[in-house]
Design goal:
about 250 residues, alpha/beta, Rossmann fold, 2 domains, seven-stranded mixed beta sheet, three-stranded antiparallel beta sheet, 9 helices, globular, binds S-adenosylmethionine
Length: about 250
């Protein structure tokens, strides 16, 4: 893939693909071309310019929007049983940031946890992404009813199923504020107690990660916690002022 092709694709998908692993990108785009009958990349690029459905299919194939409620449930269990109670006892009202929230399942899972602990709490979850289509769906808070199986049984009563849809009720929506934010170029929210950034940094080249982790460290208050995906590690956490807490969780200690 030439530099110019990466630039065109980035422009069309409104995604900075320079920050992504080149081999992974090449492999995923090649597989997409084979499935969709394209022999060369320039033909795909021309088709993408005029076909929004193809654009969305490519975004989906890049794995970029894949998400679930309570993804990796064992980690959410640790969050519910150990991390959140400790944060709530220290900070009372929490400011949480779900960075790369996709269609909203992650921030609504967080909202369900908060509601379980303190329905009247004045917590806020700032949920951000660069995909405007995903953000629009996230704000709606409606999913296929079959997605209810992703939600652990104890939290299911907090959601409702109406006319074949799983609906996020206002009691949970009230905690979440969705907004556009590009992790590679926009300023990060400050004063955060829990920063959830899962299954997004895996797509980035190693060179761009230190800047992001530095930004995360500045975003968090001392004692705040960073929550990563199950296949992501923060190498050298102490160089950013973090200490490992549990698998996938790091506390800002400096
Ligand atoms: C695989 S999804 C992960 C969703 C959720 N965090 C989870 O773990 O289920 C990754 C999300 O990151 C978003 N994303 C990709 N590049 C981004 C960037 N540069 N800044 C912010 N979000 C980005 C994508 O649009 C996508 O919604």
């Amino acid at each position: 893939m030439t530099e110019q092709q990466v630039q065109h694709l980035s422009q069309i998908l409104r995604l900075d693909l320079h920050a992504y692993h080149p081999q992974q990108l090449q492999r995923l785009v090649t597989a997409f071309m084979q499935r969709n009958g394209f022999i060369n990349l320039d033909d795909l690029i021309s088709a993408l310019r005029v076909d929004p459905k193809l654009r969305q299919n490519l975004l989906d194939s890049l794995g970029i929007n894949i998400t679930q409620f309570f993804r990796d449930p064992q980690m959410w269990d640790i969050l519910a049983k150990e991390i959140l109670p400790a944060l709530l006892s220290e900070f009372k009202s929490l400011r949480i940031w779900s960075a790369g929230c996709s269609i909203g399942k992650e921030p609504y899972s967080l909202a369900a946890l908060l509601y379980q602990f303190a329905p009247q709490g004045t917590h806020i979850i700032i949920a951000t992404d660069i995909d405007e289509t995903a953000l629009t769906q996230a704000k709606k808070g409606e999913y296929p009813a079959s997605d209810v199986k992703e939600i652990p049984p104890i939290y299911r009563p907090l959601f409702s199923v109406q006319n074949g849809l799983l609906v996020v009720p206002p009691t949970l929506k009230k905690f979440v504020k969705f907004q556009y934010l590009n992790l590679l170029s926009d300023p990060y929210p400050q004063g955060i107690h829990l920063l959830v950034c899962r299954n997004l940094l895996i797509y980035f080249r190693p060179e761009v990660k230190p800047r992001i982790f530095q930004g995360f460290a500045q975003s968090l208050v001392r004692g705040g916690v960073l929550f990563l995906g199950a296949s992501e590690v923060l190498l050298n956490p102490s160089s950013y002022g973090f200490a490992p807490l549990q698998f996938g969780f790091y506390q800002k200690v400096l």
